[in-house]
C-alpha cells in the first residue's frame, strides 16, 4: 500500500504549494535524538537532586523532568524555534499547522500533552499506527491539534536581477494564453511581495513563473522570476513600462 507523502495547500496568491510530509523513519530519528538529549539532562538533574536531597528529592526531580521534557521542551522549541526541536533540526523536519502556518501555543500544547499518552504510556504504538494509517502521516496528537510534521526544504535564495530587459521585449510577448485567473494571481503576488520574507517570496515567484512561462512564447531564457512576472503583468495590461517602476528593490 502507498501513502501520500505530500500535502498540497493553496496560498492567497492562488498558487498550489506542496508540503513534503515526514515519513515514519525520519520522525523516529528525530524522536530518538530528542529522547537522548532529554534523558541525559534528566539523569543529571536526578543525580544532583539525589545527592542534595535524597530519594524524595530525586523522585520529585524525576517527575518534573518527565513533564518538562515531554511537554515544556517540545512546546518551547515548536512555538519559539519555528517548529523544530534539536532532534527535528538534525533530521531536517519541522512542525507546522495543516494550513502551512507556524504552530501556535494552543496547538503545540495539545499535540504534546497527547504525546504523554502516545509515547510514554503506550510506547509510541498508537502514534506509529496513526502515522501509517493517515494520509498526511499524522499521529493522534497531530490530528487533535491540526498539525503536520514536514520535511524542512530550504526555499530558493533571492537573487536580484542582473540585466534590465527593455520594454520593447515584453510588448512583443504573446500573452493571449494567460487567463484572468493567472493574471490575478500574478498581480496579487506583485502587490504583496514586499510583505513576504525572502524565502517564501522567492518560492512563490518561482512557482508562478514556472507555471506561466510555457504560456508565453518568446520569453528570453534566464529572465529573473519576479521580473518575468512584472513584465507579464505589464504586457497583459498593455503598459509601456513594468509595474511598480521596474526592477525590484533589494532586501534590507
UniProtKB/TrEMBL annotation:
The keyword Transmembrane applies. Pfam families: RDD (PF06271). The keyword Transmembrane helix applies. The chain crosses the membrane at residues 32-52, 58-80. Keywords: Membrane, Transmembrane, Transmembrane helix. GO terms for cellular component: membrane. It is a multi-pass membrane protein. It is found in: Membrane. InterPro entries: RDD (IPR010432). Residues 22-146 form the RDD domain. This is RDD family protein. It comes from Solirubrobacter phytolaccae. The lineage of its organism: Bacteria, Bacillati, Actinomycetota, Thermoleophilia, Solirubrobacterales.
